[in-house]
Description:
70% of the residues lie in helices and 0% in strands. The chain is mostly helical. The chain has one domain (4-236). It starts with a helix and ends in a 20-residue tail after the last helix.
Amino acid sequence: MVTNVDTLRHLCLINELETSIGFLKRGIGELQSLDRVNDFCEAPIFLLSFGLEKFLKSIMVIVYWEDLEILEKYHKKWVKRNGHNLENLLKAVIDIVEEKKYSSKRPVGKEDLDFIIDNPDLNHLIAVLSNFSQGGRYYNLDIIMDRKSKFSDPKKGWEKIENEIFFRREDLQRRLTDDLSYNHISEIIKEIVVILETFLRAISRFFTLADIGPLGKKMSSIVYDFLVLSDEEIGKRDYNNFQRHPK
């Protein structure tokens, strides 16, 4: 029998997932607004880190939906600072789908997991977002208070990602040499968006392909916009003027 508590739990899960997707879309939109003049990278870092944390935790909640004892153990970990470690959360989700033999059952599963685990740009990006989530957002205040921060400056971390992409893109270097007004930052951002969209599509596929349970399939409509991204669409969306993908 469905109780008021069950209904409320489902409604809160829906709200949590919708909020996570909203933050992730807004984060990519803010990312697409960056250029040589607007370098306010803190906005997309905040939105993406917050959205990704909610997204990964929601997946774990879906997996253990019927086991409140396990969820309570996770909750006790999540309310502590280490509970904001996105690298650990992502590893926990990957371990879950690997236990279900996702990569061996579906070719696309192996492709997705290989990308998540082995792509160095994605790994650096997750590390920067995780640093921010755990305490890097307080880096400036720590320095102001004459305290040694346990975390690195998020802005420098972001600039390192941009520089890594720039220095391996000889085409961008040549164009900037020929035209000092060339907006190379926008091209770098496009590459970061491609990485993010590929990652979020891979995670969204867990809802329908990774055997995380009937609740995952039921909630898949919430992640639909990332779930149905085709290879041709990746990197082409303008998230500041994005209309929900038609079903």
